[in-house]
Design goal:
Elements: E1 4-9, H1 15-26, E2 30-31, H2 33-39, H3 45-55, E3 60-63, H4 67-70, E4 77-83, H5 86-97, H6 101-123, E5 135-138, H7 139-142, H8 144-157
Parallel strand pairs: 1-3, 1-4, 2-3, 4-5
Helix pairs in contact: 1-8, 5-6
Length: about 160
């Protein structure tokens, strides 16, 4: 199966690290906002959706960009949502961005708000709604490395890989 994994996430959950771990283990590329934007022809959501559909013709991992909704009709797509406790997210942002607690907290609030608005604007759905994903993983409970392990074991069990 040409597995395509979409990964939606709250800011500061470590989802990018999970995606990179999966990428290495599955030997598939990870596409994020920067890569999608780089390949767009114009600045419209339809152009972005077109790029995502093109990328999903081959096995890959797509971070965000409403990919779960754009690819919802595809049978080979597995949608994951990554979450974590707020305090863990703030600590992770502080480490990564070398910022203060208050700066990290404000960045978390702003980024989550922007992602939620973007998702709702383009899909009409609530970002993070459990009904939009096949699996939800909490990095506060499982840890980043364990989340990648859970996904690999699940894909092996279901014979997706």
């Amino acid at each position: 199966m040409k597995l395509v994994i979409t990964m939606s996430r709250r800011y500061g959950t470590g989802a990018s690290q999970i995606a990179e771990e999966l990428s290495g283990r599955l030997h598939v590329p990870v596409y994020d906002k920067a890569i999608v934007k780089e390949r767009m022809d114009g600045d419209s959501y339809e152009s972005e959706a077109s790029v995502i559909r093109e990328l999903a013709k081959e096995p890959c991992i797509i971070l965000g960009r409403c990919a779960s909704e754009i690819l919802k009709e595809k049978r080979n797509v597995f949608n994951v949502y990554i979450c974590a406790d707020k305090e863990d997210r703030i600590r992770r942002i502080m480490e990564l961005e070398k910022s203060s607690y208050e700066e990290a907290k404000a960045k978390l609030k702003q980024t989550d708000s922007e992602r939620s608005a973007y998702y709702h604007e383009h899909t009409g759905k609530a970002w993070g709604d459990v009904n939009n994903y096949h699996m939800i993983l909490n990095t506060s409970d499982l840890g980043i490395a364990q989340c990648a392990d859970v996904l690999i074991r699940y894909f092996e069990q279901k014979e997706f890989i």
